[in-house]
Design a protein that fits this description.
The structure holds 2 protein chains of 2 kinds. Chain A has a 5-stranded mixed sheet with strand order 1-28-29-30-31, with no helix packed on it. Chain A is of the alpha+beta class. The radius of gyration of chain A is 39 Å and the shape is elongated. The longest helix of chain A has about 50 residues, at about 90-135. Chain B is mostly helical. The radius of gyration of chain B is 25 Å and the shape is globular. Chain B has 19 helices and 2 strands. The chains are: A alpha+beta, B mainly alpha. Chains A and B meet through helix 2, helix 4, helix 5, helix 6 and strand 10 of A and helix 1, helix 8, helix 14, helix 15 and helix 16 of B.
């Protein structure tokens, strides 16, 4: 039952509505509002459709801006055109589609341009209409019934108080919770750590994070082992093996990607790298079982995605990796330098830019204390692109960097201990240059090289033995400073000089291997001791194990000879795979990388 | 409207891969706006403020205020495209204060100070008739709803947080968030990102029913105005003479800025209030300290608003292999051959600045919350219906509801 008051109000309302309906201005305003509203909705819908139509079909990344020409159809036509560039019909199709897409784009632009003004106009008219209508429907003010203002004010204040308190507590709680549950290391802290670990800071100078000489000697941490000299600290390695019979072959594991680099070993872990045009990988094998412990792809941010131009013989992974006992470092033909810890966690990576190398980059890495040394020789000596870099092993940050007046080269640098100082020796046409490995300061240089310098230098009996490929073996004293070309070259030998293999020396004699000969010179005076012609071709460098020289030839056959004044073959060993990498020698084991496999040679028991 | 703006945004794509005979025009940069026009803007602002103050205080004309508001919407909004504006000028002032190398234009300083100066004397006449952001919300208000008082008070705190954040990010040179997240500037320019247009559209749809939501709950400049207008020498009143307690104006304000008469608290309420107040005064330093400490913990995410920190973060992730590939920023940085170590060092320094800045920000928010709680505990007696000194936007809607004012106008006419 409606009360009298309600009936009265209802009656008033009906009368008011009737009056409004009779008011032509009200009717006009309401009608205008409805029409303008409907018009605005239609225009808005069309604009939305127009907008969505222009969006790229990249649901994976909705933040990307529309690229009107990025259509599958056009991309497909362009790909076809690449393989058939003279096809006139294809050219016409590409042009037509390109034009069509552009026309569609500008049509959408034009539509949106006009539509937005139409929509703006529609909204303005709608607002005028709706506000006018609201003005007609406006009711006179009706004060509420008397309320207890005192109680109302108190209640409002209390509610406001508690809602503000709750808001404060909730916001504080959320912040606190996010802090407690956030396990990630703050970026600023990471940055501070990195800055703190920069060379030259207190932290760096206080703690020398590099292995001892003894640790290095126990292992095979770089190309040609400790010091890059090709000398094994162990003599308990097999002096015979044969893959066919399986004698002394402990295990053989497949290496996923090809590479000419040699194995390095640290505390039972064997590291290799492999690469093809698209992929670059670092491998860690268990030295005992041959199991591939981890395999890591190398993805380093780089300035160019260009594939380096390399010779097939060089490949994309010719440089041998290096380790400091905590981390393993690798470099590839495209200039990617990468660092992993022994568990396979990436520590850092950077790209040095694709090197301009005639056959492809092949210089191996060298460590000096905590510094990773990279001889990055490129192009010709006049191009000014070659340089020597020292990076902090922990962070990959450049510690020093020196331009080198040399051409591209393939020899690997070595760090020698002369008894008075440490010297970093590098070879490339036309200079043998010695640097202070800690600072990069140039100590001396000798102009004596020519051609594509690939054999790496060694240090024996106080002399640096550098190789002018195929031409000369040059002995240089290390005591000079500045240009020592005239003063420090002790002797030059000219027969049976290798163009790829590096020499090896026991201090008294130096042994050389070429494609077809094995020869021996005296270190002191450079007098030839003997030469033996061989039907074997060598690219892997010879190694010295006690009083024996191990030479592994390209076809997998290895000869072991006496490191003496006369040529004497002790054994001939065989692997069924081509070998170009130099072997690694550790306690009781030899690791040889074949074309597809990594071999472990040792006493099986 | 949002979609049309988004669709109208600039899109670029490459020239054809083949020769078409078409010659691409040279890229041109529009010339800088002449200084004269900058001062013209200042002159228009001054004139609008004077006129707005006259219309609200002397003339008491809602219609006049509305017309001026529409003019301001067209001039400062659609014509000047929402820039320069006093709200965004907060950031220029903050940056100029903390970064001596930043040369702030005189006109920006004037734009920042002039409305504040007027507020000190005439109340929030800038909000009433001159601010284009307020105007666009005001014109779409069709059916205002009254929000409960407690919600009004609580949401009102957000503006202080926004102000604190805007000053922090501007002072550190990180971002001008007020401009970046201005919900209406996309409409003024008829162009903008889809997200911002949707945000602005949402504000306007809400604005059909909730009057000037941005002004009341978010505007950082409004927060400063709110404080200053409490000290204004002259300000808008509901009635031109004495209030006759007719209560007709009670529901007239769509912004909840009319305060009802209130009697002094009863003795037992007074005692309880006093204890509560003392407790809050004791707690206030603790609240500020805790908030400051919590703010400090936000330094990390806050610092990422700075592009150098973001870049260092990105480069670091790339260098350590946590992400693959590069983005535009890291690609550009690498192309410059800049030192990563120096970038890290710079980012580290910025991160340190954020530790202090965030602590101050947290402390400021704590202070605001504590102040609000104290303010809500204090009960003031009031005899008449009055416009809230801080919250009144001086829009003049209440004029029409006051029979005293109507009678006076009849007499005048």
């Amino acid at each position: 039952m409606k009360t009298t008051e309600q009936k009265f109000k209802a009656g008033n309302s009906v009368n008011a509505n009737d009056a409004l309906r009779a008011n032509p201005w009200y009717q006009a305003a309401a009608g205008t509002a409805v029409v303008a509203g409907v018009f605005s909705v239609i225009v808005c819908t069309l604009l939305v459709l127009n907008y969505l139509e222009g969006k790229p079909l990249e649901p994976s990344d909705p933040t990307k801006k529309a690229e009107p020409l990025k259509t599958e159809e056009l991309a497909k036509l362009k790909t076809q055109l690449l393989s058939d560039p003279q096809n006139e019909r294809l050219i016409k199709d590409v042009r037509q589609l390109d034009l069509q897409l552009r026309e569609e784009f500008f049509h959408r632009q034009s539509f949106a341009e006009q539509g937005k003004y139409l929509l703006l106009g529609g909204i303005v008219v709608f607002l005028i209409g709706i506000k006018t209508t609201a003005g007609y429907r406006k009711q006179p003010p009706k004060p509420r019934k008397n309320v207890n203002e005192q109680a109302l004010a108190k209640r409002n204040a209390n509610w406001a108080f508690w809602s503000a308190s709750v808001l404060g507590v909730v916001v504080g709680g959320v912040v606190l919770l996010s802090i407690v549950t956030d396990e990630t290391v703050p970026t600023s802290q990471l940055l501070k750590d990195i800055i703190a670990s920069q060379p030259g800071t207190e932290k760096d100078t206080a703690v020398a994070a590099y292995p001892s000489t003894e640790d290095i000697k126990r292992n095979w941490p770089r190309f040609r082992g400790p010091g890059g000299l090709g000398i094994s600290a162990y003599t308990n390695v097999p002096s015979y093996w044969d893959e066919k019979s399986g004698e002394s072959i402990v295990w053989k594991s497949e290496v996923p990607l090809p590479g000419e680099n040699s194995p390095i070993v640290w505390d039972g872990k064997v590291f290799l790298t492999g690469a093809d045009e698209q992929n670059r990988e670092v491998y860690c094998f268990d030295g005992t079982t041959g199991k591939l412990l981890w395999q890591r792809a190398v993805n380093v941010p780089r300035r160019s995605s260009k594939i380096p131009d390399v010779m097939e013989d060089t490949g994309f992974a010719a440089p041998t990796a290096a380790t400091d006992g905590q981390r393993v470092y690798a470099i590839f033909a495209n200039g990617d330098v990468i660092c992993f810890d022994f568990a396979g966690n990436r520590v850092w990576g950077r790209n040095l830019g694709i090197p301009d190398s005639a056959y492809g980059y092949a210089t191996s890495l060298t460590m000096y204390r905590n510094l990773l040394l990279i001889q990055y020789d490129q192009a010709t000596e006049d191009d000014g692109l070659s340089e020597m870099l020292a990076m902090d092993g922990g962070t990959g940050q450049t510690v020093w960097q020196k331009k080198r007046p040399v051409a591209n080269s393939w020899a690997s640098p070595i760090v020698i201990d002369t008894g008075k100082d440490r010297q970093l020796i590098t070879c490339a046409e036309p200079w043998v240059i010695s640097y202070d490995p800690a600072t990069g300061d140039e100590l001396w240089q000798a102009k004596c090289l020519y051609g594509d310098v690939a054999p790496s230098q060694i240090y024996a009996n106080g002399l640096v033995l550098a190789v002018r490929p195929g031409e000369e073996l040059i002995a240089i004293g290390t005591g000079g400073r500045g240009n020592v070309t005239e003063s420090q070259i002790a002797w030059i030998a000219e027969d049976d000089i290798p163009d790829i293999c590096s020499p090896v020396s026991n201090g008294k004699l130096v042994f050389l291997a070429t494609n077809g000969t094995v020869s021996c010179y005296e270190v002191k005076g450079g007098t030839k001791v003997w030469t033996k012609e061989s039907d074997l071709k060598f690219e892997a460098s010879p190694s010295l194990v006690g009083d024996k020289v191990y030479l592994v030839s390209n076809n997998g056959t290895a000869i072991i000879i006496e490191a003496g004044l006369a040529y004497k073959e002790i054994a001939k060993c065989r692997l069924d795979e081509a070998v170009k990498a130099s072997p690694a020698f550790v306690d009781g084991r030899i690791y040889i990388r074949g074309e597809k496999h990594l071999y472990c040679i040792g006493n099986k028991e | 409207m949002g979609f049309c703006g988004a669709a109208g945004a600039q899109q670029r794509f490459p020239p054809p891969d083949f020769e078409s005979g078409y010659k691409l025009p040279l890229t041109t940069v529009p010339p800088a706006r002449q200084q004269l026009y900058e001062y013209l803007d200042v002159a228009v602002l001054l004139a609008a403020l004077l006129l707005g103050s006259y219309l609200s205080l002397k003339k008491r004309s809602r219609r006049g205020i509305f017309c001026l508001m529409v003019f301001s919407l067209v001039y400062f909004g659609f014509w000047r495209k929402g820039c320069v504006c006093p709200i965004g000028a907060i950031q220029n002032i903050a940056l100029a204060f903390f970064e001596p190398a930043y040369a702030i234009p005189t006109t920006v300083v004037i734009f920042f100070l002039l409305p504040l100066f007027f507020t000190l004397f005439f109340g929030r006449t800038f909000c009433a008739a001159v601010c284009p952001l307020g105007a666009i919300q005001d014109v779409v208000l069709v059916r205002p709803l009254q929000l409960p008082g407690w919600l009004e008070h609580t949401l009102g705190l957000l503006g202080y947080v926004y102000l604190g954040g805007a000053v922090l990010f501007a002072a550190t040179g990180s971002a001008f968030i007020i401009c970046q997240y201005d919900p209406f500037v996309s409409f003024f320019r008829l162009s903008g990102s889809f997200e911002m247009l949707v945000l602005g559209g949402s504000f306007l749809v809400v604005g059909l029913f909730v009057g000037r939501a941005y002004c009341r709950f978010l505007c950082p400049y409004g927060v400063i105005m709110r404080v200053l207008s409490r000290f204004s020498k002259w300000r808008i009143t509901i009635t031109p003479k004495d209030c006759i307690q007719c209560r007709l104006c009670e529901e007239s304000c769509p912004f909840g800025a009319i305060q009802r008469p209130a009697t002094a608290p009863l003795p037992h309420d007074y005692r309880a209030g006093k204890i509560k107040l003392i407790t809050l005064f004791v707690l206030a330093p603790i609240i500020v300290t805790v908030a400051g400490r919590l703010g400090m913990e936000l330094a990390e995410p806050f610092s990422r608003m700075h592009e150098r920190v973001r870049l260092a973060d990105r480069i670091h992730m790339e260098e350590t292999g946590r992400i693959e590939g590069t983005d535009d920023a890291s690609e550009a940085f690498r192309a410059t051959g800049g030192s990563i170590a120096e970038l890290y060092s710079e980012a580290g320094q910025i991160a340190d600045e954020f530790v202090w800045g965030s602590m101050l920000f947290g402390g400021f928010v704590g202070l605001v919350v504590a102040g609000k709680l104290i303010g809500l505990t204090v009960r003031r007696s009031r005899k008449d219906y009055e416009a809230d000194q801080g919250r009144c936007l001086a829009c003049g809607r209440c004029f029409a509801y006051c029979p005293v004012g109507r009678a006076e106008r009849k007499v005048e006419h």
